[in-house]
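User: Design a sequence. Structure:
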């Protein structure tokens, strides 16, 4: 086991040995013709850890995310979830394994209520996912779990509103609720702050901070300040390649990262 895996492997609370990391990415790469979108990326996300992936536009963050989620097949490399090789496992099966995720572009039912959106997500991984003719109970397990999840992201009072009535920031909160209602074992957040105002970003940050630490989170984010403020470790990418991985303080101080984001090393006040 390499050093990165050892650092991210938490001890078993029952004392029976180390717990496998939630996610291990080894030498992952993706080529489109002659273009190398992601080139030899490796990372490890430990149990309960929060890790950010940052980089400028075109760095390869979203392609990396899609390979981890199962949307895109890698050209080379390996993805493991909870100790199991899932490189060739489709997205739906990864979801059933406990992968919760949000999308860079909102993927919601705009004319349905918030509660119904979350209930659809809650049923998605169950045997009743395709049973459309059964009446939805007011206090059945799915409904109660959906209401609790809306409460956890601050949207319980909007449960009967349609998605179309929400602000962009509230839609992002709803997406997190839909990812959480399935009780995921790992949460993948793909640029959740994209398109948000400063006030909406502050609200979103607070909601993510309040998520249970028992859920490991991989956050792909263009906003460096948000990623550094929410995570235990951060990896920076540029042009599909790894630049540095470290604590937020280490990454913030890294010379190459400063040049990528600022262009000049003397503008410290902006980081």
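Assistant: Done.
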């Amino acid at each position: 086991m390499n050093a990165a895996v050892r650092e991210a492997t938490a001890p078993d609370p029952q004392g029976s040995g180390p717990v496998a990391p939630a996610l291990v990415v080894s030498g992952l790469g993706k080529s489109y013709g002659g273009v190398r979108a992601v080139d030899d990326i490796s990372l490890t996300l430990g149990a309960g850890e929060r890790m950010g992936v940052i980089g400028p536009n075109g760095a390869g963050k979203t392609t990396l995310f899609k390979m981890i989620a199962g949307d895109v097949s890698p050209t080379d490399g390996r993805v493991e979830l909870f100790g199991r090789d899932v490189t060739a496992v489709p997205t739906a099966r990864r979801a059933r394994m406990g992968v919760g995720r949000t999308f860079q572009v909102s993927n919601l039912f705009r004319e349905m209520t918030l509660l119904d959106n979350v209930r659809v997500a809650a049923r998605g991984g169950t045997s009743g996912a395709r049973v459309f003719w059964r009446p939805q109970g007011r206090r059945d397990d799915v409904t109660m779990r959906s209401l609790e999840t809306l409460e956890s992201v601050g949207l319980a009072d909007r449960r009967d509103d349609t998605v179309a009535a929400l602000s962009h920031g509230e839609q992002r909160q709803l997406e997190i609720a839909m990812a959480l209602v399935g009780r995921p074992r790992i949460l993948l957040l793909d640029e959740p702050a994209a398109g948000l105002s400063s006030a909406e970003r502050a609200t979103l940050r607070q909601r993510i901070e309040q998520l249970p630490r028992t859920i490991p989170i991989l956050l792909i984010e263009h906003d460096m300040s948000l990623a550094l403020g929410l995570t235990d470790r951060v990896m920076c990418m540029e042009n599909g390649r790894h630049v540095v991985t470290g604590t937020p303080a280490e990454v913030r101080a890294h010379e190459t990262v400063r040049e990528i984001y600022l262009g000049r090393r003397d503008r410290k006040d902006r980081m």
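The domain at 28-261 is CATH 3.40.50.300 (Rossmann fold). The chain has one domain: 28-261.
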